Structure formats: C-alpha cells, structure tokens
Amino acid sequence: MWLFDRDLWVEIFHTLGKNMFRTFLTMLGVIFAMIILVLLLGSANGMSNGFDKVFAGTASNSLFVWGQSTSEPYKGFERGRRIRYKIEDAEILKKQIPEIEVLAPRIELGNHRGVVSVYRKGQTSGSAVYGDYPEIDNITKKKLVEGRFLNNTDIEESKKVCVIGEETYKLLFEKGEKAIGQDIRINGVFFSVVGIFKPNNNINIDGENAVFIPFTTFQKAFNSGDRMGWMAIAVEPNTKVAFVEKQIKDILKKKYDIHPDDERAIGSFDMSEIFNNISAFTGVLKGFSFFVGIFTLLAGVIAISNILLITVKERTKEIGVRRALGATPKVVKRQIVVEAIVLTAFAGLIGFAIAVGFLAIANSLWGSGDDFPFVKPMVSIPQFTISFMLMVTLSVLIGLIPANRAIRVRPIEALREE
Amino acid sequence: MIEIKDLHKSYKMGSNSLHVLKGINFSVEEGELVAIMGSSGSGKSTLLNILGMLDGADSGEYNLDNVPIKDLNETKAAQYRNKFLGFVFQSFNLINYKSAVENVALPLYYQKVNRKVRQEKALKYLEQVGLREWATHLPSELSGGQKQRVAIARAMAAEPKVLLADEPTGALDSKTSYEVMDLIQKINDAGNTILVVTHEEDIAHMCKRIVHLKDGVIVEDKKIEQVRAEQYV
What we know:
By secondary structure, chain A is an alpha+beta fold.
C-alpha cells in the first residue's frame, strides 16, 4: 500500500519542509477557513444548546387552554358570554382524546392575571394565587429552591399548604428568614409554606410572584365549586399539538354552545409553535454557518492548489529529472496530490485546534447561558468529520490541477539547457 | 545493443517545418564508447533525446537491446528509461535538497527497490566514483566535478544497458573534465555501453568511436585509437 510507503512521506516532507515559510503561508488560508467554519458551527450549536436550556423544564409538545368571551351569538345566547369551564371537562377531554398525556386543571383566584393580597405578619404581597394539581410540574417544571412541590396527598387530603415564588418570599419574609413551615394568609385562610420555587428563568408562564395551593384545597377554601380556570395539556410526543387543540376546541364548543366559527370564545396557546420556530431558526443558522464555512474552506484549498501550481512550475526541472530517472506520471501525480492532502489536512487540524480553543474560552466566559442563550458552544463529532472529509475530498480534487500540470511537463522540455 | 534505421525527425516552427534528423542509420554494439559530435543545430541533441526516449521519432526504427521502441506512452517510456538507460546531463541535474546518496538512490526508488538495499547499492556506486565519504553532503556542498561524479553514480545505480551522457564535461574545467572522462572510461572498461554527446575534440578522442553529425545526417563514423584520460589527471 503506497500510503505506508516511507519514501513517499520522506519525499513529501522534504519538499514541504524545504520551503517552510511558503508552506506556512499556504496553509494560512485553510487554517483561517477551518477556524471560521468551526467557530460558526460551534456558535450555532451553542445558541441551539442555549435555547434548549431556556426551554428545559417546559414540555415542548404542550398547550394551554382557557375560557374567554364569545364573539358570536349562538343558539339564543348573546355574544359576549363568558365561558367558564367545569372540572368535569378535564375528565371528558382526557377520555375522548387519547393523545392527551397530561392534563392539569388550574383555577385562579381573582381575575385572570389579577393579583390577590397575601398577608404575613403585617407584610403584604400582591400575588397570583393558583389552585393546581401536581401534574402541572410535568408541563412547566418548577425549580425548587427549598422544600417540595404540591403532591397527591395534598390533593387527596385538601391540605392547607402552599408553594410560593421567590419574589413572593422576598415580599413576605425577611432576608434569610426560614419560610418552610410558616403560615401565610390568603383571603383570611392560612396556608403553610412547603416549598419555594425559582422562576424557570426564561419561559415564565406563572410569574415569579405566585402562590400555588392544592386544587382541592382551593375549592373548599374559596368556594369555587366545580369551576376550572384553565388547563395545561401535554400531548404525546408524536402527535401534532394543533391536531389535539382542534379536537379540544370542538368538544368544548359543543358542550358550551359556542358558535363553531367563534374563534374568540376559547383561548389557547400552542407551546410547540415557539419550539418549532426556534428550532427552525437554529437549523437555518447551522445550515448557514456550514455553507459559509465550506465556501471559505474551498477558497483556502484553492489557495493551496495555487501555491502548488507555482511550486510545480518552479520544480519543472526536478520533475523532468525524476521522469528521466524513471518516475512514471502516476508517481509524480500521486506525490503532488498527497502534498495537497497533507497540507490541507495539517492546516485543517491546526485551524480546528485553534478554533476549539476559542470555543473553550467562549464557553468558560459565557457558556453558562445565564445572560443570553449560549451554552456549550462546540462542534459535534459528525459535524467535524463531515467538514474534514469534505475538506480532504476538495483537496484531492483541487490537488489534481497542479498534479496534471506536473505530468504535462515533458521531460525533454524540463531538461533543456538554458 | 542500439539499432537505428532511417530515423527522421522534424519540428514544427509555426508554419515552417524544421527537418532535424534526415535519415539516421546507426548501431552500437555492447561495450562500445561512442562520441556523437556535431556543431549546434546538427541534430545531435535530438538524436540523444530520441535514444533516451525523451522524444519520439517521426519515422524509422529504433531497437534497444532487441526491444522495439515505438509509440510509447509516458508510463511505458518512464519504465523503459528506468530499466534501460542512465542519464548524465551537462548541468548535473541533481536534486538539490537531497544528499548525494539519496540522489544516487533515486532511480532505485522508482524501481521499487527496498530501502535498505537501495542505500547499500547507492553507497557502493558512490564508492566507485570515489565519493563515499561525501554521501551525506548536499549537492551545494560539492564541487562541479564531484557533482558530475554523483550524477554518473546515479546513472549507473539502476544498472542500465546504455549510459547516455549529454555534454558531461560541458560545465567543467579541463582538469575536472578529464577526471570525469577517466571515470567514464573506467565504467566502459567494465563492459558498459556509453554514448557521449560532445562538441569538444579532446573529449571525443577519449572515446573509442566518433560519429559526426552535420545537418541531420551522419557524415562520418569511424573507430579511433582511444586516448586515456588517466595521463592528464
């Protein structure tokens, strides 16, 4: 196998080493190209990872449904009728739509997005108060700083417990004060704090200033009866959210006598749309980086080919001597092509190493993703392999230009005495 | 060893055609030392190029060691050159970034001779031209005469049937020229067939036969009494 022919390599390193400076300048193009490619890809990956981190804890295949007011008169009802769901709707929907994985009903104290006064020892916080099922945690994960989230026992026994947001804690407690086990008062009812959560820093549906109590406790404490404010729904991974959304709306419209064309009566928000938009965005970003990078690489490889062309011109005589001594065109060609490959591959690796270094620095500076979505900027192994293979293939194809020039040199012309 | 019949060669110069070789008939036996003489433009270099398979003839026959040399592609020509011929050039044409021994070993590399054997053989031939202790030196560290001796060692390394020397002394002073001719004579004494292209009378007379070329034809072909170069060294 010629690849392991020591002499071939000796020849190649001889020729390349003879002109260190020129060899280095030649490689510079590919080194920079590789740096650009890896930095672009790495940053795109970092951004993609950053967005993933933002959405970590939020089920991507989910939607939220709430009631609004009708905008069409229907079956004798006037427009502007407020739609209020009943807790039984949750069971109906779950039963009729098997694609629903999790359905967490919620009820809110006061108006939607309204605030309720929460008291503790003379301190007040205007917080949102929600009656929730523990399942909500599967759809929008709460980062607990202390204690625990609501559980099934809380629901079954209608315990007067609550989980409060960090903001609420700051408003109601002194700095450093222990909150777990302490009571807070909502509309004259006392609740014992069992957990404190930190907002899920980027996607924030509930707000930071919020108090969660068990749904069943809410019903009893605030006399909400069988009312239900809204539903958070997680859909099976392989089902389109829009498909389930339509079914839910159809069922609810029928049940509450809403005009089939009334778009305003039922409010809903499809979480997967955001995810799709963002993954489309990062996908385009990655594709673009790859595109730009590969063309830069092409330019770098062409520069190598150019220098090799000059080298061939300079070495006309040497090549002629070699041919006279019995070098076949194949051998000459192979040497030039392998030179191109060696130069490109070596330069590519140097560029790769430098770029990875840069990415590592960027990662240690901003990689935590706290300030903006940028986490673990690095190229993946397949990305690297593909770019590297592509680069080597390009170098072979482009190395053939000087190689063919070299074998077109007729030994007689090369040896002609000046 | 070499047999040439009615060899013609012309070059196209624009619309004109320059007829350089106008029917050469010529043969060389094994062990001969032949000088090809002629003024510039006589066609002697063209003849040597054709003999060296660096150029093809338009018509005529050329047999080398009973192998017809005709319509060779580049690969075949390279292989034949490697197998049959050793070249010595006026300007030495050593590869300047390779040491003496590496230069000598180069034809063996193209014969795919194993590295170790190659090294041994190259050293043996360097020894023969008296440059063993210069083996690791680069051409730039050698004198003109030494360079030409390395070139001769390189030409001999592949053990060719015929050694073709194109003005081997053209770039050397007369003393060094005689040293080189002495070496060529000794190689010939060992039974090797050698063709020397030269325009210097004294060099030609150190061969055993002189072929005179003029305007593309052989005007004279005579055996001579060889002048030994040794006495001038």
